[in-house]
Design a protein that fits this description.
By secondary structure, the chain is an alpha/beta fold. The chain has 14 helices and 21 strands. A hairpin with a 2-residue loop joins strand 10 and strand 11. The structure holds shikimate-3-phosphate. Shikimate-3-phosphate binds next to helix 3 and helix 6.
Length: about 425
């Protein structure tokens, strides 16, 4: 599996802030990870090229250096939001932008609390990108997050950790906790009291060696392909099994699939293991509001699987999908209907009625990697005729996706 995208962004950022040389193995080499590396290089860190199979060497600085040019975050929401947190604690101005998809995504959810901490942000025209941020002397923050977002949470924790002030957050749901785990490893205090998260700046970021696990969100596409297959089984090795990322396995188990984990061990503060999966006849389920943060990136694939399950699947309160790399809610329904499935939106809920009619038609990705991979996987089932308008955009998070998928079916790439 390609390296975990969320952990790769964070590892590169922490390494860039550690005075000395860090080594990162198993890093994701996809476009999004390269966006983070490129931004950090512009700010003074030295980072070796991100190449499959190569360890990444990072020479960091205790403080990043001013860059007069605009920093391009590409398609990556994690890059821009986490970098805003880091730059909030640096007393110079920076300007950040991204591609057309990133320019339509909400940034106020990060800039408002950073301004409350003492940074100065200025959004571009129509409240979008580019953003200018001038870091300041920060104040402790107590903030109630309007959405359960790991990107927003991480931006604020990073601002506090680097600006050396405490951060207390009330969260409406549990999102992935990779930033908290890394902060703990560097001696920061991170405590959770029910829905409140408290970070005290007791640690310091020092050079480290880290091996990054495979990305469970990318593994989800191969698991789905194996579930839809007619026979055989698939073993997917060294997948990250952090409980804040494996919600899709719980949903799949409610849908009647068995995905077994073996060889589970801990690697640099994160659980990893192998997953074994066999074809299954799925049944519909209900996904509740509390499930959503833990499966946020897996909903496109789960929705496509639901189209093949017996009965109805309801994903409740998934309005957040509208502001992902594309309007995923809109595109999922549009594409599912276009290929002959039954899907509808009811307020913020997504409802899918399973069917076994053969699907045929064209899925529009809107440049969204996960929409592209979900419909490509659905098209691997025997008897389907699904085309995807831009399969290449999978490279945003999963380099070599088409070859890996073909390999799963025993076909040489
Ligand atoms: C991520 C958090 C999630 C997720 C994204 C990666 C992260 O976004 O969708 O792919 O690495 O923190 P939100 O924080 O917007 O939910």
């Amino acid at each position: 599996m390609p390296g975990d995208k969320s952990i790769t962004h964070r590892a590169l950022m922490f390494a860039a802030l550690a005075p000395g040389v860090s080594a990162i193995d198993g890093a994701l080499t996809a476009h999004d990870a390269r966006s983070t590396a490129a931004v950090l290089r512009r700010l003074g860190a030295s980072i070796s090229p991100l190449r499959p199979g190569a360890s990444v060497a990072v020479r960091g600085l205790r403080r990043l250096q001013r860059c007069a040019e605009t920093l391009d975050c590409g398609n990556s929401g994690t890059t821009i939001r986490l970098m805003l947190g880091i730059l909030a604690a640096h007393r110079f101005p920076s300007r950040l932008t991204g591609d057309a998809s990133l320019r339509r995504r909400p940034m106020g959810r990060v800039t408002e609390p950073l301004d409350a901490m003492g940074a100065h942000t200025e959004l571009g025209s129509a409240a979008g990108l580019p953003i200018t941020i001038r870091g300041g002397v920060l104040r402790p923050l107590e903030w109630s997050l309007p959405v359960a977002s790991a990107q927003v949470k991480s931006a604020l924790l990073l601002a506090g950790a680097i600006g050396r002030v405490s951060v207390t957050l009330a969260e409406p749901g549990r999102s992935r906790d990779h930033t908290e785990r890394l902060l703990l490893a560097f001696g920061f205090t991170v405590q959770r009291h029910r829905d409140r998260l408290v970070m005290l700046p007791t640690g310091s970021i020092l050079p480290f060696d880290l091996r990054i696990p495979g990305d469970p969100s990318s593994a989800a596409f191969l698991i789905a392909a194996a579930l839809l297959a007619e026979r055989g089984d698939a073993r997917i090795e060294r997948v990250g099994l952090n409980p804040s990322r494996t919600g899709f396995l719980e949903v799949l188990s409610r849908m009647g699939a068995t995905v077994a984990s073996t060889n589970v061990s801990a690697s640099a503060g994160e659980p990893v293991g192998d997953l074994v999966v066999r074809p299954a006849q799925l049944v519909g389920t209900t996904v509740l509001r509390d499930d959503v943060p833990g499966i946020i990136d897996e909903i496109p694939m789960l929705a496509c699987l639901a189209a093949r399950a017996h009965g109805t699947t309801r994903f409740e309160h998934v309005g957040e999908l509208r502001v992902k790399e594309s309007d995923r809610l809109g595109l999922l329904v549009r594409n599912l209907v276009a290929i002959g499935a039954n899907a509808a939106v009811d307020g913020d809920d997504l409802i899918i009625e399973g069917t076994d009619v053969p699907f045929a038609g064209r899925a529009i990705t809107g440049g969204d990697h996960r929409i592209a991979m979900a419909f490509t996987v659905l098209g691997t089932q025997r008897g389907q005729r699904i085309t995807v308008d831009d399969p290449a955009c999978a490279a945003v998070s999963f380099p070599g996706f088409a070859d890996t998928l073909a390999g799963l079916f025993g076909r040489r790439p």
